[in-house]
C-alpha cells in the first residue's frame, strides 16, 4: 500500500528470498565487497558488489553512470530489501534497519566453510538524517559491528540521490519520493538544501503531498463543497480505504502517516491519466512546487546543472511537464538533465569513493586526488583504522552534531 | 503555546485554583447541579450551575441565549479547566479527561460535612467523537461513576457548538478551533456534517491549517523559493520555535501535532494585521474555505440560518470578511448570524434539556413536548433510571456504533 518509487521489482530480491536462493557461482578467491544501503520512508534496500580487480575510479573520473559494468559485479551483485524507517519519540530507527539488512547480507554471503563475507567499505543513505537522527555514530556502529569494516559513510538521502542522479557532478538534484528534498552541492564548498521539511511543513509536490491533496479532493466531493471536489478520486479512495467515516481512524492512529497519504498517489496519477481535471491540477501544482524547490537549491557557485529523481516523476506528464516548464522559467540558463541513477546507485558510488584511500590486502588502490570530506549533516565518515583490527566501540565521526 | 480559542481567561478558574479558592456562599438547601463539559484539542472545561427554582425551559422556548441569567447561577457558577484530549493507537482519551474534571468538581463542591454535590444531569461535548471514540459508553460511565447521575448526554463538539451558536434553533454552524467542522441540523431529521477530517485530510481554514500554511510560508522564505515566502513569518516562527533545522524534530515526534501547528496561528494573525501580504492571503483563503464548509452543511430542509463560532474568527477581518463574502455568494438566501454562545454553553443547554423529563425531589419539572432523541454519532443519551438508585455498571446508550 505504500509508494515505493525507486524499487525495480524485477531486479529486487527480498531478504527472505535471498536466504533460499541458489548459491552464487564461487569466486576463485574470496571477494571483498562494497555494500550500499538506502533507507527510505517506504522501504530499505541493500546492494553489494564485489570489488573489481581494476583500480577504483579516481574522483575526476566518476563511474556512477556505469555502476555495474564489470562482469564480476553483474554476476555476483546481491540485492536485499528491508523494512521502512519508523519515526518515534527518539527520532528515526535507521540504525536498526541497517543492522537487520547487514545481518541478512552476511547470512546470504557466508561461504561454504562458514567464513563471513569480507567488506571493503559500506555506505548508507538515509531519509530524515539531516533532521531526525541526531547522531550518525549509531549508524556507523551498526555497519562496523555487522560487517566488520571501519570504512563507512553515512549520508542524508538527499546526498545519495544527488550522487546517483548526477554521477558525482556538481549541481542541484530534487529527490521525490514519499517526501521531497533538493540539494545543490559541489561536494566541497557549496551545500544548499531546500524543502525536505516533512509532510506537515513541506515536502511540496511529493507523494505524501499529492496523496493528501487527492484525499482532500475526494472529501470535497463527499462533503458537497462548492469547489475542489473530484468524484473519480472519491470512488478511488473508497476502493482503497473503505467507507469515508473510517478514514481518520485509519490515518491518525498510525505512525507512518506520510506513507499512508503517499499510498494514494497512484490513484491520483491514474485519475489524471483518465482526464480528471482535479487530479491533473494536483499533479501540475506538484510539478511547479518541485521546480521551485530545485531552482532554489541551484545556488550561486554551482554549475547550471540540475536533475529530478524518484518514482513519483512517473505520475505523469502533468507533473513532469509543469516541472520542466516552471524550472525553465526560473532558471533559463540551466540544463535539466535526466537522472543517471537511483539513490542506491549514489550510495554505492559513495562506498566506492571510500576505497580510494584504502590500503588493501588484494589490490593496491591509488591515493585519491580529492578525498571525501565529512560535512554535517550531509555526510559523516567512520574513521576506524582498517589495519590493525578495530577494538574500540566508540566511533569517530566527521561532525555528528 | 496552543491556540485556545474559546477560553475566556478572565472567567476561567484552573482546577488547582478551585481547590484553594474561598468556599462559595452556602445555599439554604443543597442545590442540584447541571454539569457541562467541553473536551477539545487545546484543553477542556467544565461548568456547573445550580438548577434554578423556575421550571426548566421547554424545547420551544430555548434559553441558550441567556444560559446564566438567574441570580443563583451567576453566584455559584463553577468553572474548571483540564487538559486537552490525546489521540493514541486506541483513539482519543475523552473518558479520562472527563473523569479528571468531574473529580475536581466533586472535590471543589463537596459540602462542609463531606456531602458530595448532587448532580441532576451532565452533558459532554467532545472533539473527534464522531470518528475517534468508537463507544461513547465509556464517557457515560465516567460521568455516572464520577457524578452519581444516570441522566447524561455525550455529544460531538460539532453539536454542542451548534447548540451554543444558534441556541437550539435549526440551521448550520461551523466551529473553528484547532480543527474545523460544520453541522447542519434541526436536531430531528436533518444531520449534515462537513469537514472535521483532521489536519491531514481537511480542517480547512482552522487554526492547524492556518498555522501549517504560515510555517510553510516561513520555510519558503528560508529556502529562498520563488513564491510564497514571508520574511515576517520566518522571523516570528524562529522566535517561537527556535532555529529552523530543529522544527521537524519538535513537530514530528509529538502526539499533538495539530495543536503545535495551531500555536502559530496568532503569529499569522499578527503578521496579517501588520500588513504582511502572505499572511493576509492565508487568512483570506481560510475564510473562503470556512464559508464553503458552512454552505455545504446548510442542507435542503433546513432554514436558511447559519453561524460561525470559535476563537479563530478573531484572527482578523481578512478571515471574517472573506468568510462572509464567500458565504453570501454561495447562499445569497441565507442569513449569517453572530454566534450566541460557545460550545460549553451548548453543552450546558444540552444538560438542561436532559432535566425536562426528570422527576425531582425539589421541583416538579414539566414533561417535555419534544424530548431529546439520540442520534449516532452526534448525540448519545445515558438511560440510567434516576429513581431508584443506580446499581448496574453497564450503561445503556442511544446507539454507540
From TrEMBL, chains A, B:
Bias kind Basic and acidic residues: ranges: 60-80
InterPro entries attached to this UniProt entry: ATPase_BadF, ATPase_NBD, Euk-type_GlcNAc_Kinase
One Pfam family this sequence matches: BcrAD_BadFG
Pro residues bias spans: 22-31
SUPFAM superfamilies, sorted: Actin-like ATPase domain
Ranges for domain ATPase BadF/BadG/BcrA/BcrD type: 119-298
Annotated stretches, region: Disordered: 1-32, 53-88, 379-401
Biased composition (Polar residues): 390-401
PANTHER family found in the cross-reference section: N-ACETYL-D-GLUCOSAMINE KINASE
Protein name according to UniProt: ATPase
Source organism of the structure: Oerskovia merdavium
Amino acid at each position: 500500500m505504500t509508494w515505493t518509487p525507486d524499487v525495480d521489482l524485477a531486479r529486487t530480491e527480498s531478504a527472505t528470498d535471498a536466504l533460499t536462493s541458489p548459491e552464487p557461482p564461487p569466486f576463485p578467491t574470496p571477494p571483498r565487497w562494497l555494500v550500499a544501503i538506502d533507507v527510505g520512508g517506504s522501504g530499505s534496500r541493500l546492494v553489494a558488489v564485489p570489488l573489481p580487480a581494476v583500480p577504483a575510479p579516481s574522483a575526476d573520473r566518476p563511474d556512477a553512470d556505469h555502476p555495474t559494468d564489470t562482469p564480476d559485479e553483474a554476476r555476483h551483485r546481491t540485492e536485499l530489501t528491508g523494512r521502512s524507517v519508523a519515526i518515534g519519540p527518539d527520532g528515526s530507527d535507521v540504525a536498526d534497519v541497517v543492522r537487520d539488512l547487514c545481518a541478512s547480507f552476511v547470512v546470504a554471503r557466508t561461504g561454504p566453510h562458514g567464513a563471513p563475507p569480507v567488506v571493503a567499505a559500506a555506505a548508507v543513505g538515509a531519509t530524515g538524517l539531516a533532521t531526525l537522527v541526531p547522531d550518525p555514530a549509531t549508524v556507523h556502529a551498526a555497519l562496523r559491528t555487522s560487517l566488520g569494516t571501519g570504512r563507512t559513510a553515512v549520508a542524508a538521502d538527499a546526498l545519495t540521490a544527488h550522487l546517483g542522479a548526477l554521477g558525482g557532478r556538481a549541481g542541484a538534484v530534487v529527490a521525490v519520493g514519499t517526501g521531497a528534498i533538493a540539494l545543490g552541492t559541489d561536494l566541497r564548498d557549496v551545500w544548499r538544501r531546500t524543502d525536505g521539511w516533512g509532510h506537515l511543513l513541506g515536502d511540496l509536490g511529493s507523494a505524501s503531498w499529492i496523496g493528501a491533496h487527492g484525499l482532500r479532493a475526494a472529501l470535497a466531493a463527499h462533503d458537497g463543497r462548492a469547489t475542489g471536489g473530484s468524484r473519480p478520486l472519491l470512488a478511488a479512495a473508497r476502493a482503497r480505504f473503505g467507507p469515508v467515516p473510517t478514514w481518520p481512524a485509519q490515518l491518525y492512529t498510525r505512525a507512518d502517516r506520510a506513507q499512508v497519504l503517499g499510498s494514494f498517489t497512484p490513484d491520483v496519477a491514474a485519475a489524471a491519466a483518465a482526464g480528471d481535471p482535479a487530479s491533473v491540477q494536483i499533479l501540475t501544482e506538484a510539478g511547479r512546487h518541485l521546480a521551485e524547490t530545485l531552482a532554489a537549491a541551484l545556488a550561486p557557485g554551482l554549475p547550471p546543472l540540475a536533475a529530478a529523481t524518484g518514482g513519483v516523476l512517473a505520475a505523469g506528464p502533468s507533473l513532469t511537464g509543469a516541472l520542466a516548464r516552471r524550472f525553465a522559467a526560473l532558471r533559463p540558463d540551466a540544463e535539466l538533465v535526466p537522472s543517471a541513477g537511483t539513490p542506491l546507485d549514489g550510495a554505492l558510488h559513495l562506498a566506492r569513493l571510500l576505497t580510494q584511500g584504502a590500503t588493501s590486502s588484494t589490490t593496491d588502490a591509488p591515493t585519491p586526488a580529492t578525498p571525501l570530506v565529512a560535512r554535517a549533516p550531509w555526510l559523516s565518515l567512520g574513521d576506524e583504522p582498517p589495519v590493525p583490527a578495530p577494538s574500540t566501540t566508540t566511533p569517530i565521526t566527521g561532525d555528528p552534531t
